[in-house]
Amino acid sequence: MKKLALAAALVLAAAPALAISRYNPLSMTCQSARAAIHNQGAVIFRWTSPRGLPLYDRYVRNSRYCDANEYAEWKNIPTRDDRSCPVLNCQSIDNLDGMFFVPDNYL
Predict the structure, then answer these.
(1) Chain Cα centroid distance, residue 60
(2) 82 and which of 1, 6, 30, 64 could share a cystine (Cβ 3.0–4.6 Å)?
(3) pTM check: above 0.85
(4) CA dist list (Å): 15 to 9, 10, 12, 18, 37
(5) Is residue 86 within 8 Å of residue 59, measured between CB atoms?
(6) What is the pLDDT of residues 11-51, one digit of tens each?
C-alpha cells in the first residue's frame, strides 16, 4: 500500500502544473488581449477600476473552457486603445432565464 501511495505521489508531482496566465488589459491593445485569450484558451485579466478597486476575472476562447454548468458570454473589458473590448467570460447557465438553446460563442 505504501508503494502505491508513493507511486501516485510521484506521478502527481511529475505532472505539469496547469497555470493560467495573468495580464493587465490596460497595458494591451484590444487585438493583443483577444489574441492572448485565443492562443492560450483562458487567461485572467486584472486591472484597477477608476475608483481604485481591483477588478479581475477569467476570460475564455469558447464554452469548452468553462465549467459544465456555464457557457461563454460576451463581455466588454477596458484595454489601452478601447474602453469596450469584446471578449468571452463564463456565465452560469441559470442566467439564461428559460432559453432552450445555450449560446455557442467563439472568440
Answers:
(1) 4
(2) 30
(3) no
(4) 10, 9, 5, 9, 24
(5) no
(6) 545 444 568 999 999 999 999 999 999 999 999 999 998 89
